[in-house]
Every structure is written in structure tokens, then in C-alpha cells.
Amino acid sequence: MAAALGLGVLLGVLGLLGEPAGGNKVLHSLRYLFMSVSEPSPGVPQFMMLGFVDGIPFTRYDSERGRMEPLTQWMKDGVEPEYWDRNTQIAVQSQRVGAVNLETLRGRYNQSRGLHTIQWLSSCDLLSNGSVRGSFRVGYDGRDFISFDLGSRRFAAADAVAEITRRRWEDEGNEVERWTNYLEHECPKWLRKYVGYGEKELERKEPPDVHVSWKEEHGMLILSCHAYGFYPNTITVNWMKGDEIWDQEMEWSGIVPNSDGTFHTWAKIEVLPEERDLYRCKVEHPGMLEPGIFTWEPTTSGGNLTVVVAVCVIAAILVIALIGIILWRLQSGRKDRNGYSMAAGEFQWWIQLWIPSADPRMDPGVNPGV
């Protein structure tokens, strides 16, 4: 269960769990996820990085491979070969900074040696109104540490130890200026370049394949509306009772990537068996000419469809399973520094991106020390 939670939170970090209603639409997004680990082991590198454009993994680096690599053909074809050499050097330097930061925070929290992690997330979004949204967040041992939001242009510390870092970055350094410049200018600039490289792939629209299934459980009927094989990841799935949206009791999976670059999602609702014919699933997606209304299929149970969907996302789960495993190790029987056993809902997985370099040919830069 812990590993599944880790996957869900990560998908939220990647912007795959949807957007608040009424907000400006996200046209394109760039995310970098980074993590340093104090106790590497086979299959668990000391340092790892994944880059995502519109939720699609497009670059990666880890300390075992030792080189930045493309994950899409359009990225491999789009940039010059020197790009990979330069960004490998930056990743190696970030790996060193991550190791130093781990030791620094372990000392500040007066912790013993053992498994510790430091995570960063950097993200920027191009919005439909022409504006840019961006943020930078740091976490330690799966908990919030410090964050920066482009809108407020301020760092927010999660505790007294993080306050030391906040004062250092704001009073002794120019981190506010550097992160503002990166999130407002450099990150969107590189995002536009990447979208240009992969325009044919990223601008395509593939409508979802929608199926409604059911299963009986404890005298109730659970209706499931599955939409899969769609792109982009912007989608709305609602259960309706009659003509009214009925989402009070709805359970939603979020939006999950498939191994072929498309996405899938599902929404479930528990109903009285005698009311089954009153419920319909409404799906809206840019690849559909108009919203689709789907009804339950009496001959279809939920079991086989669940297997199909699970097979579709195995490769995507493997991409980030490593982080889920580490989250599980951190959660299993572990108490925090104050002796408090942390609940699953309190874990936030924020992962690092480098501060930008002054070299305009480079996308990621070097992380600041805490």
C-alpha cells in the first residue's frame, strides 16, 4: 500500500492528477524530479533524475549509468550531441551537492546514519492565458523542507531547521533572484524548445477508449468508468445521476501514464443495485468532438478490464517504482526525529531540479547547498 501511495503522490507532483476546476488550462509543463539517497544499494542508485514534458519522461540520469540520456526519439534527434555532455557534467555536480546536503541535514537534525533522502522538484507550466506558473520544492526524508513559489517570490520553511536554509538563501545569497529567473524565463524557454522538438508527438490528440464496468460488493454495486489510450493528459471524468453531476462519493484514480506515451484514468462510484440504470459516465477530452456519455454494460465485470489497464501501465510503474520502494522503506515502522510515527497521508515527495546555469545552452543548472 505504501508503494502505491508513493506512486500516487508522484503522479500528483508530475501534474498527472488533474487541475482545479475554473483555473487556467495548462498548455505544456516541464518537471524535473531528483533524489539523493544516503545508502545506495543494487538497483537503488545514490542519485537519480527524471525529466518530464507534459507528463512524458524525456531525459534521465542516475549515478549507476553515469550519463544523461534521452528517453524519446524526438529529444535524441532535436538537441546537439554536446547537450548530453554538458548536462551530464551538471548532473554529476548536482550528485555531489546532493550528497553534501544529506550530510548537512543529518547533522542539523542530529540523526544517526542510516537511510536518508533529499528530494527536489522544479516545475513550470505554460498557461492558456499566456502566463507562466512555477515552483521549486525540497523535501528531506519524505517530508516538506522548503519551497519557493513564483507567484509570491518567497521561500517557505517547513520547520526550524529549514528556517536556517531560508535565511541563508534569502539573506546571504541570491537564490530568490536565481529561482525567479529560472522559473519565469529559463524553464519556459527550454519548455518551448522541447515542445518544438516533439511538436508532432506532443501536439497530437488521441481520444480515450471508454468502458463502463461493474462489480457487486457487500450488497452494493460499484460502477467503474475507465478511459484509456488518450493524449494529452487533460481529461474530465464525472459520474452523473440523471442530469446531475454526482461526484460526492466518487473515487478517482488520477491520470496515469501508459508505456506507449498515452494515459489512462478511472472513476468509481458505489450505488444501490436498483438504481444502476440512473447512472451514466460523462467524459470530456480535447480529442473528442463533444462530451461522451457512457452507460454501464451488464455483461461486463470489472475484473478483466482491471487486468488490461494494469498491463498497460506496467512499464510506467517500473520507471518510478524505485521511488515508491524507498518511500515504503521510509514508512515501514519508522519514526521521525521527534519519535512520532508518520502517517501515510503526511508524506510529500518533493524532488530536486538544479538551479539554472549562466550558460544559455544548458537547461538544468547546479543545486544550492542547504
How do the helices and strands line up, and which of them pair or pack?
Blueprint: H1 2-13, E1 26-37, E2 47-53, E3 56-62, E4 69-70, H2 73-78, H3 81-108, E5 117-127, E6 132-140, E7 143-149, E8 154-157, H4 160-172, H5 175-197, H6 199-202, E9 209-217, E10 220-230, E11 236-241, E12 244-245, E13 251-252, E14 256-257, E15 263-271, E16 279-284, E17 292-295, H7 302-312, H8 314-331
Antiparallel strand pairs: 1-2, 1-5, 2-3, 3-4, 5-6, 6-7, 7-8, 9-10, 10-15, 11-12, 11-16, 13-15, 14-15, 16-17
Helix pairs in contact: 1-8
Number of domains: 2
Strand-and-helix sequence, N→C?
HEEEEHHEEEEHHHEEEEEEEEEHH
Q: Which CATH class of the largest domain is shown?
A: Alpha Beta
Q: What's the total helix number? A: 8
Q: Identify the quaternary structure here.
A: single chain
Mean pLDDT: 78
Q: Radius of gyration over alpha carbons?
A: 22 Å
CATH topology of the largest domain: Murine Class I Major Histocompatibility Complex, H2-DB, Chain A, domain 1
Give the low-confidence spans. Answer: 1-13, 300-362
How many angstroms separate the termini? 32 Å
**Helix and strand composition category:** alpha+beta
Strand content: 25-35%
What does this structure look like?
It is a single-pass type I membrane protein. It is found in: Membrane. The chain crosses the membrane at residues 305-328. One of its GO terms (biological process) is antigen processing and presentation of peptide antigen via MHC class I. The chain is an alpha+beta fold and 370 residues long. It has 2 domains: 26-203, Murine Class I Major Histocompatibility Complex, H2-DB, Chain A, domain 1, CATH 3.30.500; 209-294, Immunoglobulins (Immunoglobulin-like). Helix content is 31%, strand content 30%. The protein has 8 helices and 17 strands. It has helices at residues 2-13, 73-78, 81-108, 160-172, 175-197, 199-202, 302-312, 314-331, and strands at 26-37, 47-53, 56-62, 69-70, 117-127, 132-140, 143-149, 154-157, 209-217, 220-230, 236-241, 244-245, 251-252, 256-257, 263-271, 279-284, 292-295. A hairpin with a 2-residue loop joins β2 and β3 (56-62). α1 (2-13) crosses α8 (314-331). The model is unreliable at 1-13 and 300-362 (pLDDT under 50).
